[in-house]
User: What shape does this take?
Amino acid sequence: MNWGMKNRISRIIKPETGRCVMLAVDHGYFQGPTSGLLNLSETVEPLLPYADALMITRGAIRNWIEPTADIPIILRVSGGQSILKELSNETITTCIEDAIRINASAITCSVYVGGEYEKQTIDNLSKLVDDGEKYGIPVLAVTAVGKDMAREARYLGLASRICVEIGAHIIKTYYTEDFKKVVEACGNVPVVIAGGKKQPEMDALQMACNAVSDGAVGVDMGRNIFQSDSPVGMIQAVRAIVHEKKLADEAFQIYESSKK
Ligand code: R5P
Assistant: This one.
């Protein structure tokens, strides 16, 4: 791995702990004005001091994030579909030159293994990996789950391993029973979990805790943070689990006391 690639990865996955808390706010690229992200800067600014990286699109970053923000960017460069249509029908929406202009620390796309446009999304990933390798920019592959795709270890392991084989540098997938098998399928490639739909805070914290204890290097969490009644308390609690190895109930106290 070249110097630039290693340097960018270490801006995201902190060398002190080998772990990371990514804040995902890229939902608008297929969901439009997602609850909590209508005024994206109002939501994100208080959370930035506690995030190791921000996952976002180029349009959102230019509209709602100050260029002076001190946060590594994981740039969402795929899209082309909406929640109204077949989700797997994605293309690459942002060229590598624009990712470089934005000073992205990583680029990301979704891969829909089992989806109608599976091959197209694997092809998207392979193009990103070629560009990423050329310019020293790591690629985070998201194992997307469409309507009918099973969230279980056999399927997520299959999807994650395909992304590894195509050359992804970081895998983002979903937590599931037997999650260790998914991590094992990825070899030395670091794995983070998505948060998924909003759950009660304690459940989301328990999931984060289970994921890191099963071998994930951290989370790339969105709705379970920014749709919480205390987004700052919630990201602080997630951070305590990921970087300080706190248990879920200890982290829950951090969230609870943030509301006082
Ligand atoms: C989905 O493909 C998007 O990348 C989301 O931003 C991502 O899944 C993380 O967000 P959440 O934790 O809300 O699921």
In short: Strands lie at 20-24, 53-57, 73-76, 78-79, 91-92, 106-111, 139-143, 170-173, 191-194, 218-221. The CA atoms of residues 152 and 176 lie 6 Å apart. The mean pLDDT is 95. DSSP finds twelve helices and ten strands in the chain.
